Amino acid sequence: MSVLWGQVMLHSFHLYHERQCILKLHFSETCKSAIRKAASSDRLMSGQDYEAYSNNLYEKLMCGFLTGLNQFSGAIAEQEVTEGISVANYNTCSTANYKIHYLQLITGYKLVCFTSPEVPSLKNILEIIYSEVIVKKLLMNPDYQIGSPVNDLAIYNLIEKALTI
Description:
This protein is α+β, with helices and mostly antiparallel strands. It has a single domain (3-163), classed as Beta-Lactamase, CATH 3.30.450.70.
């Protein structure tokens, strides 16, 4: 499934808690083939599931990249003086083919969205997804253990709906 906004594309959405990807939605074949390509140069242990192996490598690569992006952008950006504690940090990084929208929250959650480069800032949308879906539907659910993988189809659908508005 591909999500198009006019001629721009949403490739994927990821939710991290600390350094673990707990939810991922891949919307385009481009994204899926990039994951396979990133893992194809590594050797697969005999009997190991290729899909799980490539996803694990991709998640490790993403965690490292996001950590570097956050540190780099913090080092070069002029720091705004704010009153109180900053609860969120939003960054974007663009290439000729992709744009990464990254919202890191003081709670340890990171929302990451890959789009085509023409997509404007998704800061407001990612903040809404966090406050309305992650906090109200996931974290307030007494059955959910913080940091565990999200396997709730209703959560997936709410995130997809927020991203396609």
